Each structure stands twice: as C-alpha cells, then as structure tokens.
Amino acid sequence: xxxxxxGLSATELDILDTYEDEEYDKRAVDVxxxxxxxxxxxxxxxxxxxxxxxxxxxxxxxxxxxxMTKSFVEELEDxxxxxx
Length: 84
Description:
Largest sheet: none
Number of strands: 0
C-alpha cells in the first residue's frame, strides 16, 4: 500500500521529515498513476466545451443533481433488497 500526498506546505513537509527521521531517504520521484475515469461519451455536446463555473452550476443544477443522485441510490437499494 502507498499514499501520494499533494499540496503539502513547507511546515507539513518539515513535520514529515522529523517523523520519518534518519531511517528514510526523501527523494523526488516521477509517479505515474493508473485511474479509472468517466468521460462524457458525446464529444459533440456543446455543453462539454468552454469555461465551467462551479458556483453557477451550484446555483442552477445542484438541487436537481442531488435529487437525481438520491433517486439513483434508492433504486440501487430497492434492487439490492430484492436479491436473494
């Protein structure tokens, strides 16, 4: 198991340096990550391009998104409860 930490402050790095002590060498290494991501399949969708404003999305779409997500979870739970 490993963990990758991003965005640590100088103070946080000092704390880790002190904690890890002399038994470890701290080195800069190149890291390549394999990740599964979901990419919108309709590459011709005009809403896919341009500037995306999170605050605007929260105002105009978040409530509907949360309702849809809740409904999806409820359907999964109903399906799971009917399995043998």
